[in-house]
Amino acid sequence: MRDKYDVVVGLEIHAELKSKTKVFCSCANTYGAEPNTLVCPVCLALPGTSPVLNKKCVELTIKSGLMTNCKINEYNYFERKNYFYPDLTKSYQISQVKVPICVDGYVTLSSGKKIGISDIHLEEDTGKLTHIGDKSYIDYNRGGVPLIETVTKPDISSADEAVEFLETLRGIYVYGDIAECKLEQGGMRFDVNLSVKKKGSTELGKRVEMKNLNSFRSVKRAIEYESARQIALLEEGKEVLGETRKWDEDKNENVAMRAKLATAVYRCFADPDLPMLHIPKELVEEIRKDLPLTIAQLKELYTKEYGLTEYDAGVITANKMFSDFYNECIKLYNKPKELSTWVQSELMRNVKDKIKISPEHFVKIIEMADAKKISRTNAVPLIAEVMKTQKDPEVLAKEMDIINSMDDSNLEPLIDALIEANPKAVEDFKTTPDKIITFFAGQLMKQTRGKANVVKAKEIILSKLQGK
Ligand SMILES: [Zn+2]
After folding, report:
1. Domain segments of the chain: what residues?
2. What is the model's pLDDT at position 260?
3. Ligand 1 ion: Cβ-proximal residues, 5 Å cutoff
4. Measured between alpha carbons, how far is 57 from 335 in angstroms, rounded to an integer?
5. How much distance in Å is there from the Cα of 21 to the middle of ligand 1?
6. Predicted pLDDT of residue 455
7. CA 426, CA 14: separation in Å to the nearest integer?
8. What's the pLDDT score for residue 243?
9. For the packed helices 433-447 and 411-421, what is the interaxial angle rounded to 10 degrees?
10. Could you tell me the distance, in angstroms and rounded to a whole number, from the CA of residue 85 to the centre of ligand 1?
């Protein structure tokens, strides 16, 4: 039944911009403060106040457009979208309706398919309502937080495609330092527009909108549920109504909320408090010149130029914090493959939310290990210690007494003694040589508390065992 229909999906994505202050006033743009502490007469819209546009927010919006192949409108303006709701003290939201900053871009999926972006516009967020029992609580801290709304063309044709698009877009905004897109904090939210049509038909079906979804999973489920619902209606000869439906995450279904509102209902008009916004071409070029690499571009650099595997490149770029760190380390020590191993093994396992070691110190420890000044084994606690104390690794290594001080000539008698004491292992060398060498090296490092040069030690062990 499903293959008789095409599913047509368009998305609207709200992302909170990573600016220090709100979009039209100087209140801090921070998450998690005490309710109603980050407010002022401007964002509360008290009489006699006027909004002043935050330049940083405009720059971040331009950046979002350039990174998604949009054109930048040199002249654009803000409008008032009028409606009453308790989370909006102004009774209107300042947004861009007719002429937004960015238009006509696209994002490419892994299949090569391009998902068109009709526009990205800058607007302000509303306050936040929390309903507990029969009471509702309002926090205006979020009122006036800058949002970009990215509107796609109806180019998406499945739930999986929608999720891949959202993951890609999120990667672009996070890597571009445009938005943090923390879904669990509401920093990225989604509206889904969906209709179905007979396969191959050019006539679109009635569109249903599902608003304010807050995870990729709920977008996926909502698309699956709603497309099945619409197809079932059409199969029964019934009509799909153009309406807004509310997604219920717990029940895994949606319910009708209201008929879909036309834009005209909001009686939009140009905000008389804000002049026409002129974006000089030079500013756009300046931003374009400094655009950071996207995840896709970084992966290409890592695999083609640095020789990493697809897998390793994927692990490092999965988190911007680690790939930023890795990029800094490479500037200091041009051994990309080795650095990738160190970052994946010794850094990632010790870091939760913040890297508490500088690239300089991290690289210094790797250099010490490469120069056999310390053993690879002792590099691990040294990294942990630097993270704790922020002291210079060389000073710390001395304090921890892990500098390789053992003269290679002293190794021989120790190895001889070990071989003497482990006849069974000597016997097993014939069948599992690698395992036995590792065994003896391990014993030796234990005895010398890691101060022996392990490469040299393995050489000696091998030659001794081969001679047996
Ligand atoms: Zn304010």
Report:
1. 2-284, 408-466
2. 65
3. 25, 27, 40, 42-43
4. 38
5. 9
6. 80
7. 67
8. 87
9. 120
10. 19
Measure 79 CA to ligand 1 centroid, in angstroms. Answer: 19
Give the burial string for 212-232 (b: 16+ CB within 10 Å, else e). Answer: ebbebebbbbbbebbbebbbe
pLDDT of residue 250: 80
Which residue is listed with tokens 């009489």? 47
Torsion of CA 369, 372, 374, 377, to 10 degrees: 70
Give the amino acid at 351.
V
Task: Report the pLDDT value the prediction gives residue 263, as an integer from 0 to 100.
Answer: 64
Q: What is the pLDDT of residues 138-168, one digit of tens each?
A: 999 999 999 999 999 999 999 999 999 999 9
Over the chain, what HEC string results?
A: CHHHEEEEEEEEEEEEECCCECCCCCCECCCCCCCCCCCCCCCCCCCCCCCCCCHHHHHHHHHHHHHCCCEECCEECCEEEECCCCCCCCCEEEECCCCCCEEEEEEECCCCCEEEEEEEEEEECCCEEEEECCEEEEEHHHCCCEEEEEEECCCECCHHHHHHHHHHHHHHHHHCCCECCCHHHCCEEEEEEEEEEECCCCCCCCCEEEEEECCHHHHHHHHHHHHHHHHHHHHCCCCCCCEEEEEECCCCEEEEEEECCCHHHHCCEECCCCCCEECCHHHHHHHHHCCCCCHHHHHHHHHHHCCCCHHHHHHHHCCHHHHHHHHHHHHHCCCHHHHHHHHHHHHHHHCCCCCCCCHHHHHHHHHHHHCCCCCHHHHHHHHHHHHHHCCCHHHHHHHCCCCCCCCHHHHHHHHHHHHHHCHHHHHHCCCCHHHHHHHHHHHHHHHCCCCCCHHHHHHHHHHHHHCC
pTM of the model: 0.81
Q: What integer pLDDT is reported at residue 59 of this predicted model?
A: 98
CA of 311 to the centre of ligand 1 (A): 45
The pLDDT of residue 253 is: 81
As a dihedral over the C-alpha atoms of residue 332, residue 287, residue 14, residue 352, rounded to 10 degrees, the angle is 10
If you measure from the C-alpha of residue 98 to the centroid of ligand 1, how many angstroms do you get, rounded to a whole number?
A: 26
How confident is the model over 383-409, as pLDDT tens digits?
Answer: 999 999 999 999 999 888 888 766 777
Please tell me the number of Cα atoms within 13 Å of 424 on its side-chain side: 1
Q: Please identify every stretch of the chain with a pLDDT value under 50, giving residue numbers as ranges.
A: none
CATH of domain 408-466: 1.10.10.410
